[in-house]
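Recall from the previous chapter that SMILES is a line notation for molecules. Here it describes adenosine-5'-triphosphate.
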Amino acid sequence: MIYTVTLNPSIDYIVEVEQLELGSLNRMKRDLKLPGGKGINVSRVLEQLNAEHAALGFIGGFTGDFIDAYLNKEGIRSDFVFIQDDTRINVKLKHDQETEINGLGPVVTEEEAVALLQKLNQLAEGDILVLSGSIPPSLGGDFYLRLIQACQKAGAEFVIDTTGEALLEALYYKPLLVKPNHHELAEMFGVTIESQDDLITYGRKLLDEGAQHVIISMAGEGALMITSEAVYHATVPAGTVRNSVGAGDSMIAGFVGTLTQTKDPLEAFRAGVASGSATAFSDDLAQRKEIDKLIPEVQITKL
Ligand SMILES: Nc1ncnc2c1ncn2[C@@H]1O[C@H](COP(=O)(O)OP(=O)(O)OP(=O)(O)O)[C@@H](O)[C@H]1O
Ligand SMILES: O=P(O)(O)OC[C@@]1(O)O[C@H](CO)[C@@H](O)[C@@H]1O
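With both inputs in hand, we obtain:
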């Protein structure tokens, strides 16, 4: 069973404008409201892959109700802690580029935080906890560590998709997967990455510090997977990019969902790349049909 945790969900308010003029009235060409937050995106793609999963996290207010209803409608099992404050709204502005304005997130009280930790009592050996996205400031930066410790007590594995110190600290607990993109990897080590060799060098450091699988995604430029056995490069399928929001989350869903079903990291990597690309080529997140179509187009080479 896979459990996703979204500490800071959002309604993603996707706004398309013909042109953006700062300081003027701009009218929308199209808009769309979707449930968002990285773990929730992972759950929505896991549902497409028929993986057994449930979505955990904090939701609250009218925005939280929207997310809850949307996920219910998609048949996604969820077990959120309902909080007093409102879930945030993140604005995704599409003009000639994509501009994102993400909220800080609601206040989560200690009582609400403890309620989430208690929900981890349902974890069992063999389960996977996917920890994704930002932490609302009121929770404190070490909240992921509290969740990881609860996860380890239950004998479950975890995947973590966050940045900076929180990710580096989590390595000690041997995550099943970490998936920085190439920019995040450079930022994490405070370096400039100039070549594939540099990516492999810094990716290996994440492995040496505890990660079981490291995937470095590079948007349309391909992806690398580093394991204790080998380094693999994957090409990404060609297509028209419509939306890159959630591509990284879809990649995690494809990897974890397939790994639990096949136990084969290479097949999981291939499905991860196809799922990321299927989202990049869609207005919303990847659908099963598109993922299946793209899987054979991903070429993997052992380096
Ligand atoms: N332009 C693209 N063309 C094809 N596939 C893409 C493109 N952009 C993203 N993808 C797919 O999605 C995967 C993850 O993308 P990316 O490297 O942008 O992750 P990310 O930065 O974590 O994404 P996010 O935008 O969700 O934060 C890529 O490995 C690839 O499979
Ligand atoms: O502010 P965070 O938690 O870092 O990221 C949140 C977010 O940008 O990530 C998802 C895409 O990956 C979106 O659904 C959501 O709006």
